[in-house]
Amino acid sequence: MANSSILSSALSPEYRQQVLSSLRKDHFDLLVIGGGVNGAGIALDAASRGLTVALVESNDFASGTSSRSSKLIHGGLRYLEQYDFKLVREALQERELMITTIAPHLVRPVSFLYPLQEKLKERTYVGAGMALYDALRGFKRALPWHKHISQKELSEIAPSLRLDLITGGYRYFDAQVDDARHTMMIARTAAKYGAEIGTRIRCESLIKDGKRIVGAKVRDLLNDEIIEVRARVTVMATGVWTDELYKNFGVKPGYIVRTSKGAHIVVPGNAIKSESGIILKTESSVLFIIPWSGKWIVGTTDTDYKDDLIEPIATRADVDYIIHQANRVLEPKLDRSQVISVFAGLRPLISQEDGSETADLSREHVVDHPAPGFVTIAGGKYTTYRVMSEDAVNEAITDLKRIVPDSCTDSLSIIGADGYSVLKNQVQRLASLYGITSESTIHLLNRYGSLISEVLDGAPSEYLEKLSPELPYLKAEILYAVTHEGALSVSDIVNRRTRLNFELSDQGTSLLEEIAEIAARALGWDSAKKEESIREYREAVSRQESALVN
Predict the structure, then answer these.
(1) C-alpha span between 34 and 43 (Å, rounded)
(2) Which pLDDT score, from 0 to 100, does residue 353 have?
(3) 8 A C-beta contact, residue 70 and residue 264
(4) Predicted structure pTM score
(5) Which CATH number applies to 89-175+258-360?
């Protein structure tokens, strides 16, 4: 299969046209439906084994669940209470790999405090859990061991915690990531190794030859063209859309996907005084208070959800619940007026029945093979996407009837990781070279890694300025988003290539004209297309604001 993008990861407008051409004429080993973290991971796993791969996504990379998580790469401390040791061990091992090998430029350590309200029983119980959490990591340890801390030490680390309730606590480490950026970078890495990656391409139906699935009919949503894509195996990785697509495709599923909503709020950095994140046990789950770009992300909820899958919205009740749970241990207390923004995501959870609470459902994943040439995957945790992807490809290749190499993604770094460890020691040199501040250089290295030169070399000098004084993003990043990262709308840029949607109190609306103008020049938009893209984003913001008022 001819592919002029080999060894290039740029998802440019020109690249998209090449993808459409390949979809029309080539026969693939694997066709992947879905551009979330699992779909991108499957495309990378398969391409790195030498298989010919195409991926289609109806919206943007990570436009669903994979951009709306708590931004944590973690083992799932609370799953120890469910005796799900296998999942915790697996997640902890994946966390280590991401920090050390796969994505050190995107995944970084973050410390958490687990406050105690009892001196003896709770300390013994939680301490045993912390010890087990550390032990399940195995011998490779990129993060420090947990540590018991006294009430006095706790007060110094987190002055906002109520000492009339807190007797001490534990400090431990997990990791965090910009989930949308991480997913997009996985997709770009898959493209680098030959996968054909296309967004705004919706799967309309499966193509059948008797009982065998031999591909799918897809629609290019930008040109309204139907394309028949032929593939030996079609893999569906569509998360919360799985059940609906099963029905549309006329295939009987082997499991039920229950949808759980997880809402978060964002508050200013000065609203909570702490040098560490905080985890609180609630009646049904846990609540995280997570440091993020000089602010705090607080969440999450875990409630059954049966409404709109395209645009899950955080409600006033969600916000009130989160504030109430945080205020049990915080002084001064959080107030609704401090909330900068909110966001909500949906978890696809595997269930055999409809009656159980979503918080009690396993975070394990399931790979299904309901028809020859058709494989699906659902469930799981963001942290374990690589293992899930490997399992899905392992199942898919049983239909290929030929020897395929084993997965190598446990040692395959995603783009930007190579050379990052050196460049992060050369901040001053890079800052001087490009005429930007050290702060901007660090910001870019932590988003692009060794691709920093690609971002800056191709940008006009005036684009080396900040987009907003409040945040570190440069105008060059907006340009790069559409020339290399596959962004095709204002929403793609504001919601996922940057995180202006929840990092600014106005959700980035004051910057839309400038963002759209940069995008328009690169994508060849006329004024009507530019205004349409702005309007679509503003309408989404209005719908979220209405949900918080009513």
Answers:
(1) 10
(2) 54
(3) yes
(4) 0.95
(5) 3.30.9.10
